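Ops channel
N.P.: pipeline sanity check, posting one input/output pair.
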């Protein structure tokens, strides 16, 4: 894993603003869809193993959740490393973008379709019962694209170019994450003791 520069304060501020915007829109969509959404504390079907995030989000988690890395191991393989034994997220306030829209009806444009791009839609199977998602107005779905572009911009601003992605599980691995954070929290503690 390449090191890259540390996270500038301006990038962190912009990332927090992005999360606020995501949470505001996702909150409106949650209200709009009301009882359709079965998302509840303890339901962790979306919290799969193997999720990756841009390095800028990985650094944000490492910076703000250092205590977790010092004191707790990763959730065993098979689910997200950040889940606790009761199916709750241990970094909820600092969770990455992708986790903030889980459960919502999603829409995106498949640019590779021929002869012309096609709009695609999807939703968690648990939340599928209800009006067909293909019939929902566009603004009743989470649009994949605009926030990904903002995130990519922050990644570029931080790293100067590389669009490196990081496995969430790797953040528990000092050997892999240390070069990201300028010293993994667990390693920093060893150095201090
Ligand atoms: S970071 Fe939290 S919300 Fe995101 S997949 Fe992992 S446990 Fe779930």
């Amino acid at each position: 894993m390449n090191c890259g520069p540390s996270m500038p304060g301006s990038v962190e501020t912009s990332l927090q603003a992005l999360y606020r915007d995501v949470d505001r829109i996702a909150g409106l969509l949650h209200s709009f869809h009301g009882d359709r959404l079965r998302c509840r504390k303890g339901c962790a079907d979306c919290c799969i193993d193997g999720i990756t995030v841009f390095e800028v989000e990985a650094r944000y988690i490492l910076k703000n959740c250092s205590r977790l890395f010092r004191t707790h191991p990763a959730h065993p393989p098979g689910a997200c490393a950040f889940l606790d034994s009761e199916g709750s997220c241990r970094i909820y306030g600092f969770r990455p973008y992708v986790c903030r829209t889980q459960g919502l009806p999603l829409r995106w444009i498949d640019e590779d379709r021929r002869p012309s791009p096609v709009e695609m839609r999807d939703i968690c199977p648990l939340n599928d019962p209800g009006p067909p998602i293909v019939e929902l107005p566009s603004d009743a779905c989470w649009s994949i694209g605009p926030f990904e572009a903002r995130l990519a911009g922050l990644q570029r601003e931080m790293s100067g170019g590389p669009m490196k992605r990081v496995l969430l599980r790797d953040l528990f691995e000092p050997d892999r994450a240390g070069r990201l954070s300028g010293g993994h929290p667990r390693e920093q503690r060893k150095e201090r003791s």
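N.P.: looks fine end to end. The chain has one domain: 9-104+143-192.
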